[in-house]
């Protein structure tokens, strides 16, 4: 990622506040190697510069878009000079395919829940089709060919 020095050095808490995440999130990304451990001050505080803040924003935005940790790791490697736009395109289009499948699954779920709710009498009856549907064994899964 390209260097930016317009931001003063920040402690972890200040960085978390500035980018809108928890301290634990920063610790986690450091622990798994997505975010390098920053240098420390003489008082042993970790000090984050603009480059680390930018990298953290990249990671957080990638997670918001649903990229997995490993996909973000690959994207960061490319951003750090380990590839080009073609590799980013491949990763992104693969992710779009996953998102489309999830959307299709959610639409199916919505139809099932809406149909089940529509069968409800909405009265004081002890027989509730929603409870029955939730208690029923799952339908047999169809094998994909």
The low-confidence runs, each spanning 5 or more residues with pLDDT under 50, are none
**Overall number of structural domains:** 2
CATH class of the largest domain: Mainly Alpha
Number of helices: 6
Tell me the β content.
under 5%
Assign the structural class, choosing from mainly alpha, mainly beta, alpha/beta, alpha+beta, or little secondary structure.
mainly alpha
Largest pleated sheet: none
Got a strand count?
0
C-alpha end-to-end distance: 43 Å
Oligomer: single chain
Output the keywords.
elongated, Multidrug-efflux Transporter Regulator, Chain: A, Domain 2, single chain, 6 helices, mainly alpha, 145 residues
Could you explain the architecture of this structure?
With 145 residues, the chain is mostly helical. 60% of the residues lie in helices and 0% in strands. The protein is built from 6 helices and no strands. The protein is elongated. The model has no long low-confidence stretch (mean pLDDT 91).
Describe the structure concisely for a colleague.
With 145 residues, this protein is mostly helical. The protein folds into two domains: 1-66, Multidrug-efflux Transporter Regulator, Chain: A, Domain 2 (Orthogonal Bundle), CATH 1.10.1660; 84-136.
Mind sketching the topology for me?
Elements: H1 12-19, H2 23-31, H3 50-64, H4 69-82, H5 85-118, H6 129-135
């Amino acid at each position: 990622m390209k260097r930016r020095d317009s931001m003063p050095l920040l402690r972890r808490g200040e960085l978390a506040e500035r980018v809108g995440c928890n301290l634990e999130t920063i610790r986690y990304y450091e622990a798994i190697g997505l975010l390098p451990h920053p240098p420390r001050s003489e008082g042993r505080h970790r000090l984050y510069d603009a480059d680390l803040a930018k990298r953290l924003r990249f990671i957080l935005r990638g997670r918001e878009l649903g990229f997995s940790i490993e996909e973000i790791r690959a994207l960061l490697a490319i951003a750090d000079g380990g590839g080009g736009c073609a590799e980013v395109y491949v990763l992104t289009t693969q992710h779009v395919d996953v998102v489309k499948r999830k959307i299709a699954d959610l639409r199916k779920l919505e139809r099932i829940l809406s149909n089940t709710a529509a069968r409800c009498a909405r009265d004081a009856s002890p027989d509730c089709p929603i409870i029955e549907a939730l208690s029923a064994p799952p339908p047999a899964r169809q094998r994909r060919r």
